[in-house]
Amino acid sequence: MNLDDKWDWNDKKLPCKVRIESGNPAADDLRDRLREMGMRLALENLKNDEITTTASKKSDALRKKTIRLDSDDAIATTLSSSNYNAPALFKHVDDPVLGPAAMNINKRFLRVPKSPPRKIMMDLQKERLIRTGTIPHSSDETKKTSKSVVKRRVRNSRKAKKQEHELATESIDSTAVKAAQQIFKPYTGDLFGSSGNYMNGMVYLSRCARPANPMGGFSGWEDNMDQVIEDGSESVEPTVSEHESWEQLSKELEAKVTCASTICAWSKHPANAERLAAEGALDAIMRLSKEDDKKIRRHCASAFRHMSSQQILCEQMIEVVVNPVLNELSQTSQDDAISRDCAVAMLNLTRMHGKEADLVEVGAPIALINVMNMHENLAGVCARGLFNLTCVDEPYQKIEHVTNSFLNLAESGAATLEVKHICASALCNLSDLKSMRLRLVQDGIVKVLGQLVRGAEAKTRRVCAIILQSLASTKSCRQEMVNKNAVQVLYSLSSDNDANTLHYVASAMMRLALEPANVPKVVNEAGVAALCNICQRCPDMPKTTQPCAAAFQVLSRTDAVKTTMVSDGGCVAALVTLLRMSKDPNTLQFSLLAFCNLLTNEENHMPVLKDMGVLAIIEHRKNTVEGIRESCALALFNLSCGEQCRKSAVAVGAVSAVMEIAKLDDAQAKMRCAATLCNLSAEPLNISKMVEEGVIPTFIDLLMTGEPETVKHCCAALCQLAMDSDSCQKIVELGAVPHIVAGVETGDDQTKFSCCSVLSALSFQADCRQKLVNMGALTALINLAQMEDESTRLRCALAFANLSCEPTVQGVMVEQNVLPILKMLSNSYSEENQMFVAKALCNLSCHVGSEKKMLEQDCVSSLMMIGMVRSVHYLTKQVCAKALLNLLNEDSLEQLCEEGLVSTISSFSKLSDEPTMRICAQVFNVLSSSTAGRAKLVEKKAALFGLLSLLKSSVLTTKVVVGKTICNLLCNLDSQAAAVAVGAVAHLEKVAMLGDDESQKECARAFFLICGNHDNRQMIVNVRATPPIILLARSTNPDTRAYAIKVIGVLALHEDTRLDLLANNVITWLVNITEEDIDSDLMAVVAKALCNLSLVEDYAGSMVQEGVVSALMRIQTKVDNGSVAHLIANCIRSMATCSETLSDMVDDGAIELLGLICNVPAKQWSESVLYDASVACFTFAAKSESLRKELVSRGGLKIVGKSGSFESCYDFAVSIMFLLSLNSEYRSAVASGACGELLVKLALQDPETTMTQNCSQALFMLSKTTKSRDSLVEAGLPAALVKLCKSENDDIKNSASQALKNLSSEGGDGLEEGTVSALIAMSEGATDNSVSNFDASALVEPNAVGVDTGKFGLSDSELPEKFLGSFSCLLVTIVKEGGGDAPLTKGPVGPPAPRIASQHVPHKPVVDEEVDQKNEDDEKLEKVMLYAKMNVPLEFQGDLALDEEDEEEGEEEAGGDSKVERIEEKKEERQELDQQEEKNEAGFKKTSRENKGVPMSPPLPVRTETPEKPIGPKEKQAKARRKRRSMQAKKKREAAKQSGGDSDLSFEQQAQVAGLY
Fold first, then answer.
1. Mean pLDDT of the chain
2. Which of 586, 737, 989, 1004 sits CB 3.0–4.6 Å from 775 for a disulfide?
3. What pTM does this model have?
């Protein structure tokens, strides 16, 4: 950050050394300062007691040594003797006992927000260090001191300052004077001004940086003085020039004071704002503020305050980032007036609209917090500044710093009522920002609000209620709010007498209850009690009663809390109060619906009856408002569902109320009345009373309506217990069914409808189905099904569906020709009708033996028509698929296919329903297991695509079935091509990745069976199925691994698929698998794969690097019968084509492996193995000399010796021996043993070839060494050389002749024969044909025969063609599944059981939710803040710093009496301004909330104040002075308005006129 360049950092840094005994560096530093102060005061006291002033420095030092202040008590005693408040000072030295989360020094309000920017952290650290050294005085103690104490302190302070000044003047050092002279550079004109050399350059000089050793203070002099006293040196008398320098410094200081005071005075007038902004006054004040002079700082602070009230200067202050300067000035000055001016200036800065983000970025919140922590009396000003940062229309960057500041401030216990209200107002602003609400809740605003409402004023509690209502209006915040105890906060607010507060509490509670997860906590945490409190306080205010009743209605929806609401919450009394005292229709409607919900729980019936809830409901039976009587009918019906209260309900008049409500012209209400009477008639004791009240005519009237639902309930009531599961058996046994059947034959249509309803209702009882069939119910239902009434036909279909669920009835239904009736009933577009018919057909298809008859009666076409055309619901299609699967078998397969089974199942397979997908997969599997089925599948590509689409299922069993079906299609030649064409190979790869062992095995087998075809192999490569195949080869299942390895072997065998294998890192896997314990046959397949892959020259080097040589070694070890020797030899030969990796091959043991396989090759592969080994060894020898050495040391000569067994190896054996003979170290090894004999043998052969030339050259090189000559002579070398000398080839002849010459030489192993003669001949220029030596270039390289790939082919057991004919299809086990019975809630069934009806409570939407939704949609179009930005408090609107300075000067002159007076004046002024603050608060109200019609809150209670004591003459003068200043300011404002209007007003005044403050 370059702190040394920007600020005077070095002289502000504090040493920090932690002492072990204390562990508190701040307290240690303060203790040292106090000890130093005590030492100086003790010395001064001793000097004053001296009789003479001519004492030497040595005696002073001696006295200083005798003064020991080792303890805090000694220091306190010394300071107390000089009129210092020692207890107040040492209060900051004692180590406070703080927790780990509260280790802030001088913490009063809050913690610093987390993770501020780096610059702010540095500033904060600096401010903390500075604040550690301050010695604040408690304002409370000042108030308690007497006037005499104040006077004494003023006198002592003035005296100490005078003595200190005299002592400093006498003891100033000459070096300090010289340094002081360099403070300012020579003044040559004002660089930034436009008026020339004016004001003696004071503004310019004030902007100059301080030197390294400033003279503005006396800290440096004090250090020097102490050092002089300690050293005992003589004092230095100041010279005349030094006094002149000091006077010059005083003049310069006076110039700075004049500059600061002048700019301060100019800044008071708005007309000077532009000139001050243009000519750099702000920069000058910023520089002057760093001076150590108290007057300069006061003027600077006052200038900052006045500048911040002017718009142009305020904007400039924000641009130049003046906040750190204000923060530093307020923290380091130790002056209350300066801190107040800085705080007011920062407050004015925050009043600028649109600059909030910039202020937060530069650390304005932290600066305000620091001032607040150090000055409790400025808490209101700082809180207002923080509040202004929240007056925005949308969040800005780092607004969370402001949020955290307010949360921590409000959470602290030291906040005053004013600060609490400001905090609540700020949080209200933030809660209006929708995007901030969730963050506020997460940061703990609910807990903060809970602390704010404790002991707060009514207006603050109202704002807290508004905040909770705003937060609750956002759905995402509700659950978090309840988790953070928002309900308890609302409960604490529900006891207020303020109508607005209660409205917002009720609204917030209602919104919190809209979240289902919140309901239990709302009920258990006194949420119901809060609503009850509100209802008791304002039962006749619609704006409040509506949300209360709505909240009760919403809470009562949850079954788990219904009992708690009634028993513990006491909501019944509140609802009764609303029903009896409220006239609002919505309130009544919500209250009745709440009773409807509560009465669905039978445990609540008796408490509701006892608390007069039923009577309150009955009282509204004649209410003409729409919806009221309907809700009463529903509530009474739910009450009638409880068996225990039916008698009590009739006793209180429920029957007459129901009869009254039944007269409504509303079908729904009539239906509920019929159901209620049906339930009440179930109680035997009620029958007589109901008849007496005339219920039978009501039944007749209800039956005459012709409404199916009403008739259904009436029929149930007349039949009494027809829908009671416990008595259904008795109803059938008592013979009611024949009468119902007779009614079907003889009655009118209405009777038939009712009878059909009863029969369909009885069909739900499983125990009654067989008896119903025996009593002729099937015949009656068949007759009823032929009616034209759709509801009746639907009931018949429902009854058939239920009856067909009984296995003993299924055969009877088929025999009685129910199938044609079902086919007829399916001719409808009613979804329920289609569902019931499909269920009936599906249930009947489960009957074994009925499949043929169902096919003959064309049931298949009906199922296909329902599933393909008429039905749209997935469940209906699922039932149809089940029925088709039940009918599918070997005998019916072809017929079903002819009727379109394949197309139907293909259509069903597109559904996303998992059971349907499973059934379709099973059908496809059955079809794929037969030749005819596969033929039909191949004909329709759509069917194949449908099959493949089933792999999107999330159920593993379905995917497994699909995988088996795909394997069936791929592994049969009649469907293989078609399946490959539609992408079955790619989907087979997905099946292989399912993780099912059986599926992986079948997939591996399928890959193996199809890879024999060229097109299939290309498809495998194209769909990238190679990686899954490699993965299958790693399976722990031996069959899966075997098939996968064979697939890799086949792919490696063909040149067109090798590259794909190599690209997918198959080499790595093949190398790894050699380490595992697998069958020798599979190991041979691996060896063949490696051998075939090594033929790709581009990958030879990478194979070596992957460790193929080591893998071949392991293969040879595990398969030691010689059957893989030719594969290993060829693989090594192929990899040797890469010259870069030959050394790696040798290091991996390639030569040893070659020697090993040459020992035990199979007879048919002996020549091939030796040939490939010879070629590989030749490649090694021809590469480099180092590899030749490795070849000899690793046993390569044994391979060369064995190669003499086959003529095809001669050329490479001779070439290897020639290359080895070039080095004398290897000649003896080459000449001895089989190699030497082979070389001599080959030299005697005819005819002569290139091999003969290489042989003669090798013999020549070997003849140069004695040991090699001896070995060759024993092998017959002379005869061979004689023969070669007769050759017509000159090269052969010369080599042989030279070799003969070497044989005749008797030299030792010194210089080789011919070396000297060759050297002489070269020097004389003679030439001859003699040969003296050869190198590797003389070798005539032999030509290698190409690799015969035929010997690497797979055996019959490894080829897929041999297994295609033996594949057996994979078939899954199929169990017939029924369609099930009809659900109780489907179809126009008979009179429902009370429990069913009580669960179907209609829901009336909450009105406020719709309003909230509309408001949220319009939020971006119109945004109105709850509060405008706050102005500076009235008590801080004077010229604070300068006024106090004048007062202090007056105190010095008057002896200090005015200080006590000023304290009393502040107290009185504060009391006078309370009422003005309350008036200003009227501007805080949000206009939008008044527009919503929210009633204004009742007036706050009048504050009672204790009578004031009689004031003295001084207090009267101070009061008169304040009134005079106030009148003058008022006259100035009025004059400005009359003369110039708003344009001439200051920025602050214009803002006030505009209503911003």
1. 75
2. 737
3. 0.48
